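STRUCTURE:
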């Protein structure tokens, strides 16, 4: 899929105020230092579409971007050790949960995982919650350029082994790097083929 148009549409904390559209949506979410904004900019080839920051937790709203006038990319707040108050974290959790439970346009979530680290309980718990709520998702292992190929495959296998203890099969996953563009074509092709199936 070639990205010919990408524009910011709206930000809010209320799923009911998200775009009143029948277009399919793909939500991107992960721990607050996982490189989500950089990945979104890499996918769309727009340097500043999603705002990047050296301070984790910059995204604090549900952000909708219209891609090719045919689908929405949704940038959700990161979870984890964002430097925000406990009350703010509870607010994030509430509207993130509401988004996933209420947003009928959502086709799939992409859960971003830092490929450099051992499996984190917060990531595993979040994916378990998605599964229990029957929300389709894929995994994107980010920052692949920071590891040598063997170390990368070893870390992914550790993740797979742990998930297969409770899942029937490993969710579909992609390996990405915002630095060198790894994974861009595969992720966009995945979205393209699903959009074809749902009629967009």
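SEQUENCE:
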């Amino acid at each position: 899929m070639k990205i010919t148009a990408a524009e910011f549409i709206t930000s809010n904390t209320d799923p009911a105020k998200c775009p009143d559209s029948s277009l399919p949506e793909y939500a991107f979410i992960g721990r607050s230092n996982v490189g989500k904004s950089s990945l979104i900019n890499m996918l769309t080839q727009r340097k500043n579409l999603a705002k990047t920051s050296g301070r984790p937790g910059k995204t604090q709203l549900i952000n909708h971007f219209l891609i090719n006038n045919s689908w929405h990319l949704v940038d959700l707040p990161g979870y984890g050790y964002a430097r925000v108050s406990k009350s703010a974290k509870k607010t994030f959790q509430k509207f993130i949960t509401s988004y996933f439970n209420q947003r009928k346009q959502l086709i799939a979530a992409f859960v971003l995982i830092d490929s450099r680290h051992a499996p984190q309980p917060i990531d595993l718990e979040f994916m378990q919650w998605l599964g229990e709520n029957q929300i389709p998702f894929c995994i994107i292992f980010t920052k692949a350029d920071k590891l040598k190929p063997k170390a990368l495959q070893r870390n992914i296998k550790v993740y797979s082994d742990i998930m297969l203890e409770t899942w029937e099969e490993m969710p579909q996953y992609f390996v990405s790097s915002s630095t060198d563009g790894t994974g861009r074509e595969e992720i966009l092709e995945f979205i393209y083929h699903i959009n074809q199936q749902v009629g967009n």
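REMARK: Helices lie at 36-44, 86-102, 121-132, 149-163, 184-198.
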